[in-house]
Amino acid sequence: MALDHAILVSLLEKPGSGYELARRFERSIGYFWTATHQQIYRVLKRMESDGWIDVRDVPQQGRPDKKEYSVAGPGRDALSAWLGEPIEPESVRHDLAVKIRGAAFDDPAALIGEVERHRRAHTDRLAHYLAGEARDFGEPGRPFDGPPDAERELQHVVLRGGIAYERMMIAWLDDVLATLARFEAGH
Amino acid sequence: MALDHAILVSLLEKPGSGYELARRFERSIGYFWTATHQQIYRVLKRMESDGWIDVRDVPQQGRPDKKEYSVAGPGRDALSAWLGEPIEPESVRHDLAVKIRGAAFDDPAALIGEVERHRRAHTDRLAHYLAGEARDFGEPGRPFDGPPDAERELQHVVLRGGIAYERMMIAWLDDVLATLARFEAGH
DNA sequence: TCCTGCTATGCAACGAGTTGCATAGCAAGG
DNA sequence: CCTTGCTATGCAACTCGTTGCATAGCAGGA
Asked: How many A/B residue pairs have CB atoms within 8 Å?
């Protein structure tokens, strides 16, 4: 179970509250891991009582206080141990693929709108990734020729993975649309 | 929740027992949906008591009897209704991406072996898909120019999606390996 | 003033998914 | 004969993930 580890990594990149983590899981981390605030608060509570993370009460003005979490020694060790052990290739769950195969027993053409909707979601996300890449990793921001920064480089390669995934999906959804079009009424 | 619907689609493609379904979920269906025999038996029981599927006891020689399930009217209706309603784009969970970003706080080069292992798993799966494509959708098996068979065409487009996914993953893992190599000891 | 909306945290209940274990018949090999 | 292994089905316990709801302070607009 990697939610623990996803949270640890995020807190190592930058300490923050449960709420802030939930927001990150809607953005950057959300590109490869989803979690609701409920899961996050529950895991934070458990990791704190296990001594994996430290809490610090931060009073704020103009908004409610927050608890800022940061990774403690045991948390770092747990992450390190997890990094060292092999994980299984992810188990896949593509609702849309189920729908496409199921469409053979219904009206295939009726699925076109749904597929187009998904295609839009993927082009939107691709645009979002590309904007993020230009902002955070664009040439202008890197005029110095210092030593490579591991954190930055590794974030970039993960983002490139997201970009490759979205491009692949868009191309495939075009393939799906072309296939569905062949079954349109009258043919 | 689409496990119900994945099972319905599979039973429409071909009626079978819980055990046979479990095997399909290790093969063709498993390319886009995973499920253990426990989940399958549980769902079959519920769908049967809801009248979505019919059972038929099939005595066998040389092996235990089996219960063969097939889709009944209400099951077909339920599938049809589900096909008609929009679904959310899948939520992603990539353990490997978490590990890669986490590696910045450990030894990045130590991840190389793990990434290579995943790369091998993906090349194996790609080879498997391509063999299946050649077997089931190769030119020799389609010398007739009749009307397009929806079931077959849609299975093929889903398989092409799997192939595109594996190719994308292999290319990305090469990118990851090149990135990790830059952090190797001494650099 | 009241309503809406954002930050911030949390409980309780439920449903889905995982893991360990159990049974039972039959085949094949040592 | 005994063990291993495959087909075939299932229970029980547990963990993980989702959903609905609740609280509470403060900001901004109608």
From this structure: 196
Q: Where are the alpha helices (DSSP H) in chain B?
A: 3-13, 18-24, 37-49, 73-84, 95-102, 112-137, 150-181
A140 CB within 8 Å of a chain B CB? no
Measured CA to C1', the nucleotide nearest B34 is C17
More confident residue, A83 or A58: A83
Binding residues for strand C (Cβ < 7 Å): A 17-20, 22, 37-38, 41, 44-45, 60, 63-67, 91, 93; B 1, 3, 34-36, 38-39, 62-64
In this complex, which of A83, A101, A160 lies closest to B106 when CB atoms are compared? A83
Nearest Cα to Cα of residue A89 among B169, B83, B38, B112: B169
What is the pTM (predicted TM-score) of this model? 0.91
Partner B contacted by A59 (CB < 8 A) = no
CB proximity list for B23: less than 8 A, separation 6 or greater: none
- Residues A143-162: pLDDT tens digits? 555 446 889 999 999 999 99
Inter-CA distances, B178 with A88, B117, B174, Å:
22, 15, 6
Q: What is the pLDDT of residues B6-22, one digit of tens each?
A: 999 999 999 999 999 99
Select the residue of B91, B122, B160 nearest A34 (Cβ to Cβ).
Answer: B91
Backbone angles phi, psi at A184, to 5 degrees: -60, 150
